Amino acid sequence: MLFTLNRTYLKFEIELIPERPLCRNMATAITENLVMYLILRRDLITELKWPLGAVITQGAHASTACMWTYKDDQAVIDYTKDLDRMHKVTLEVANEEALKKVETKLQEAKVDHKTWIEDNMKVCIAVKPASREALKPLLRNLKLFK
């Protein structure tokens, strides 16, 4: 609706726009296609006997470092527009050598990522948020971390 207020000393118009649910959900629509992949080493638990909490923490470190490293990137900005709907997938590799192979594959494909190093070992890779379709060919051979 358009309202006009006329006074001898003041004249202005106010346009009231009804709330549109579609606008509130635009951020969700933008982020639905974005995913952040974490690739963790399984041997940290099975061979090196790290506590589960310590392994989870490595994923948190890698994720946080990746987000901060690429904080000005449009994909990261879009990914964080709807914080309650950020989507992450955690995948596993057998050991450090397998993690290095994934890292090389990401570098060759020019995919932005952050490799987290703990105790002088590469323990986790966080891939900058991107479309699932773009990353699927590079990561399809990896299993979910369970």
Automatic annotation (TrEMBL):
Pfam families in alphabetical order: PTH2
- Write out the GO MF terms: peptidyl-tRNA hydrolase activity
Report which reactions are catalysed by this protein. an N-acyl-L-alpha-aminoacyl-tRNA + H2O = an N-acyl-L-amino acid + a tRNA + H(+)
Q: Which SUPFAM superfamilies match?
A: Peptidyl-tRNA hydrolase II
- Entry keyword Zinc-finger: no
EC number(s): the record gives 3.1.1.29
Report the superkingdom from the record. Eukaryota
Looking up PANTHER family in the UniProt record yields:
PEPTIDYL-TRNA HYDROLASE PTRHD1-RELATED (PTHR46194)
Name of the molecule in the record:
peptidyl-tRNA hydrolase
Q: Which organism is it from?
A: Steinernema carpocapsae (Entomopathogenic nematode)
